[in-house]
Design goal:
Helix content is 78%, strand content 0%. It has one domain. Helix 3 packs across helix 5 and helix 3 crosses helix 7. It is an all-alpha fold and 190 residues long. It is globular, with a radius of gyration of 17 Å. Keywords: Cell membrane, Ion transport, Manganese, Membrane, Signal, Transmembrane, Transmembrane helix, Transport.
Length: 190
């Protein structure tokens, strides 16, 4: 993977965390930078570790499907991209913005981070079939997610849930683009 692909992948993986962080920022009563950074770090660590776990799972299975691994990567990224686009286009739940706490318990933030990092686990599985430095890619995903989730909490009060969800659409489109590029390059069409 090129530096550009890694960067795009890292930021597309962070869009769902950004959307969740924006949602958290909308319900926190005047979020402070410290709370936003704590949330960002929790999201970033979880999102950075899950591709490593997925990569380990994928490496274990790679010799079984080596002949069609490019199709596996394409299908995984296509499915994730479509799921992210659908999530970004869905109508936000109005019941989510009922209370205004000062912050969120770390375990609640960690649980949300684990839910939003399922896609990073799947991407890690796909990366096991490619020539890539998984540690640098996971670090890039973790750093991008830390940045985006911290920013999401801080912007949440002003932007609202709607803009956070729309960013997820962009992340989905980027994932589909990366998957299509990998497939066309592997098939010799590009």
């Amino acid at each position: 993977m090129t530096l550009l692909s890694t960067t795009l992948l890292a930021f597309s993986m962070s869009t769902d965390a950004f959307a969740a962080a924006v949602g958290k920022g909308t319900v926190i009563d005047h979020p402070r930078f410290r709370e936003a950074l704590r949330t960002g770090l929790i999201f970033g660590v979880v999102e950075g570790l899950t591709p490593l776990l997925g990569w380990a799972i994928g490496r274990g299975a790679s010799h079984y499907i080596q002949a069609w691994d490019h199709w596996v990567v394409f299908i995984l990224l296509l499915a994730l991209g479509i799921r992210m686009i659908r999530g970004g286009l869905s109508t936000p739940d109005p019941d989510e913005a009922t209370a205004a706490p000062r912050g969120h318990a770390w375990w609640l933030v960690a649980a949300t981070a684990m839910i939003t990092s399922i896609d990073a686990l799947t991407v890690g599985i796909g990366l096991a079939f490619m020539e890539t430095n998984i540690f640098l890619t996971a670090l890039a995903i973790g750093l991008a997610t830390t940045l985006m989730a911290t920013l999401g909490v801080m912007l949440g009060r002003r932007l609202g849930v709607l803009i956070g969800q729309r960013v997820e659409v962009l992340g989905g489109v980027i994932l589909i683009g990366i998957g299509t590029t990998i497939l066309t390059e592997h098939l010799g069409l590009w």
